[in-house]
Amino acid sequence: MAHEEEDWFHGLLPREDLAILLRNPGDYLLRISQVKPTEERKLILSLAYINDKKSALSDVAGHSAGLKRNTAPPPQQPPPPPPHHPPGGLSGEARDGIKRRKHKKRAGGSMEGGRADRPRPPAQPDATATTMAGANTTTAAVPTVIRNLTTTATTATTLNTVHTQMEEPRVALGHYIIVKEKDPPNHYTIDNTLKGETVRDLVENYRTRRIPLKKEVPNTLLVTPVTRAPWELRHEHVKTETKLGEGAFGDVYSGKLKMHDGAEIEVAVKLAHSQAMDKEKIKELMKEARLMRNFAHPNVVRIYGVAVEKEPLMIVMELVDGNALDKFLKLNGDKLERVDKLAMILDAAWGIEYLHHKKIIHRDIASRNCLVANSLFGRLVKISDFGLSREGDEYCLKKARKIAIKWLSPETLTTFIFTRRSDVWAYGVLIWEIYANGEEPYPGVSVPASKQMVLSGQRPVFPEGTPPEVVSLVTADIWEVNVEKRITMTAIALKLEALTQRSPPDQQNSVRKCAATAPSPANGPLHPAHPVPHQQLRQAPTKFLPNPPHPEKNARHKATRAPKQPANPAIANSGHRHK
Q: Where does the chain cross the membrane (predicted)?
């Protein structure tokens, strides 16, 4: 059997997704990764082990058992359909977010060495991690903290604090390159200690003979092969049909997903461009999918899973039968009643409030990134496109990127920092779009000129017929320049519920209960982002934000300070023109 057919082969799954799978000492899986940008992809054997040279080998139970740990769901249990929007209806618990910080790699550190805190068993990371064999064997400090299927870096100081507080086994992840000999008999090996005619033979030799993958660390023993998780889909179970949209990294199609019981359901499939999929782009795509795995809300597009065993990579999502909100508004906006548009802005508020509860900063709230679904309970607006979303309290743009300037808050234009409160500002622009029937904000104004308008206090003027309560909410509370005083999404949703007399989904009650019992900093935390629906891939008018200020200076920037033009303009003259 070829190694690609093994059920513990996980294809192009990146290292950031491993900690949720390799939970116990001795757990291992096979995958493919690009060790260096200039090299071809290599076979990687990833292993969880107790990183303690003094521990006895008995710390890893059942060395010779070799029983697979099945992470797949039982047969005849397809994933539940996307939740609809009854008078109430959400589910899900709050998950703590954590700020991402970069770490400097130690001299001689490897590309693939890593370690992780993981939910099960309760274990804390060690300061070192095994590197790949096949290169110089060194150690690297590349910590990873797991929070609900997402990974995020934390500082060494935090890790040391955790070690002090919790006296538990130190679990690390090791990553080992498997190579095929160039000379006959062309066996597979890691470091020439053991060999095998096939990858399976090599792995079985290590497992049954209880030979450590790293000689100086006796606990690097293979015990349990970990099979694919429920969200790791097979390419053969996904069919693509009609093209719905396209973007920089992939196209979106309608399609079918074969379930465990043989039934097929309609889905949307984001198909990545193979020629664009280097290691970093795979990580970005999987980051989006990782965020989406946490979502279960009627006003947020949900994900079924990813197919990463080979190229092209696929993200499989619920198929929304309507159109992108901006297109829908241009076609039908003048036919909508007052109650219809109020329902739309409240739907969007519920979805964004849920994301913020999950510690997600969406970073691209706009009508083009919302979908209109036709459900049993009527028309429904869903938040989508999480390609720019980040988990944490704030995100600082560190390099030039295309960004939709007309939806950015004044503090983001001057500091390049995104928070939940900058999402709130963009939501205000979304409300304006809904009442302007999908028209672009600052119509007829160039991107650089619109930026100056935002910084000078000029705002889009609402069309006649916009409810005065909505105009007041947006202009006085949502477009508040002082970030500390800007209203939260929960407060917005509560005001709109009172205005419309609509009851929130069940999840909202859970969201607000957690928010009421948790500390609430001025710029409160956020959670991960996720969707990338089909119609989403339509691009917004964008410009580059070049040479952002130093992150430390950004962090010290006071949100209450009057917006000030940065030394380098926030918008460069790229070839992209606003229409």
A: none
